[in-house]
Write a structure and sequence with these properties.
homodimer; about 290 residues; alpha/beta; Nitrilase/N-carbamoyl-D-aminoacid amidohydrolase; six-stranded mixed sheet; 6 helices; globular
């Protein structure tokens, strides 16, 4: 039986018209499926501009929607029609006054099989998310996906989560062989000389290596007011090797996951056997010197 | 006040004669100090061949020595004479039947200021260490070093520890701004097609990024029986940038640590502020699916 999965990432720029963004995203998903992908991933909050670049604007709270809701319904219809597994990202209203930044997964039958609320919430110039999103309460669940009929345990944390080794480790400990991060990252408005692109790519390649997992990050691109999103959507294999990667423009990442490579990496480097769990207590503390 | 520290890493090949290896190492340390380094690092178990490539040979147990002992005394004399901080690695006999693989740090006054027993012990073809070394009991302490008079909180885990994000994270949480790994890594005798060099380098660059620390790995080189050690000694800055790096041959890595860059990286990316310690409990479990 094959243990390969064809995956795609839709890297796109978002305009002001949210209905147009959704239509644009779903057209790209259809194109990715037509090219043979059985798992397709969209960027973080793909239906709209990246509003958290504006600090504390109450009008954007109205963009939050329930799950299931309009965006997941549209995604479900596309997943069912195309027979694919579809990963997206929704500004989720859990109840009035409690919103999350949530990755959702739709199965080929259109059912909602995953909802992972972004755990780590950034707050810096251009990325002031703490006003808009509560820290997720879902942990880092591993979903038993089966794109193209191939069992593929997958975790779907979001963006800032990707900088935290704890997230990738917990996902891998729970069985993940693929970690997918819908993302919105680009320039730093307050630090024009800083370019985080290589660090962003490298820290996730590191997660792939340390855990023997495949890692996929799907970013937006284009310029929205003060931020230019750098794209760079990629898939890394379990030795950290970049299997496919996009540049700064719109496009569809096409790549193949080889689950036998996951097994081989873990035979070569049996990190999970050797973890010193008796010494890891300090990870649960905030840290800092007394 | 300057917040820069000149550091050096001695990349060397080891021969059969252990006294000659020690003399060779100390000559290189002197050369590094002469070139201006105030912190000098030696490779893992630098006084001898890498005997753990041979499974379960009792004769090598006799190579273990106490700390303080001959190797640390020789290191202490060199550190005092040259006025440097010196990091080395000793096969430590704690008591008969209990040996560790231990990184030691000698201060410029010759005092032994650090002893960190390797926490994670590998065991695979060519690297069968579990027979020779008990898993360390020292945790991942941060030492208040001051090479050249510049305060530099430093952790000194060893080799296989470098693949585990937990180690770098715990060190950083306890205040480390530099993590130094004495190392012995090279080819994989049972997997001749595998080359771990890029993964090795990348996973540590990832630790640098995720923790906003400098990372330095000092490897041996040359061929010893079934293993060719690949060298590649390097220093990475807190954005994962490789500041200096050696090739596969003997040499002295010369580089400079800029502690202001650590502050800048942590201002740009305040990961420690945003860690979700309430969600990290699974890190203390062995993992795996039920």
């Amino acid at each position: 039986m094959t243990r390969r999965v064809r995956v795609a990432g839709v890297q796109m720029a978002m305009g002001e018209d949210r209905a147009a963004n959704l239509a644009h995203a779903l057209a790209a998903v259809e194109e990715a499926a037509r090219r043979g992908a059985s798992l397709v991933v969209l960027p973080e909050l793909f239906t709209g501009r990246y509003f958290p670049q504006y600090p504390a604007r109450a009008e954007f709270l109205g963009w939050a929607e329930p799950i299931p809701g309009p965006t997941t319904e549209a995604m479900a219809a596309a997943a069912r029609r195309l027979g694919i597994t579809l990963v997206g990202s929704v500004y989720e209203r859990a109840m009035p006054g409690l919103n999350y930044n949530t990755a959702v997964v739709l199965a080929p039958d259109g059912s909602l099989v995953g909802r992972t609320r972004k755990g780590h919430i950034p707050d810096g110039p251009g990325y002031t998310e703490k006003f808009y999103f509560a820290p997720g309460d879902s942990g880092y669940p591993v979903l038993d996906l089966a794109p193209g009929g191939v069992p593929l345990p997958t975790a779907t944390p979001t963006c800032w989560d990707q900088w935290f080794p704890e997230v990738a480790r917990i996902a891998a400990l729970q069985g993940a062989q693929l970690i997918v991060y819908p993302t919105a990252i680009g320039s730093e408005p307050a630090y024009p000389d800083e370019d985080t692109h290589d660090a962003w790519r490298t820290v996730m390649r590191g997660h792939a290596i340390a855990n023997g997992v495949c890692v996929m990050a799907v970013n937006r691109c284009g310029t929205e007011d003060a931020i230019t999103f750098y794209g760079g959507t990629f898939l890394a294999g379990p030795m950290g090797e970049v299997l496919a990667e996009l540049g700064p423009d719109e496009g569809i990442l096409e790549a193949e996951i080889d689950l036998d490579a996951v097994d081989r990496a873990r035979e070569l480097s049996p990190f999970f056997r050797d973890r010193r769990i008796d010494t890891y207590g300090p990870l649960l503390a905030r840290g800092g010197r007394p």
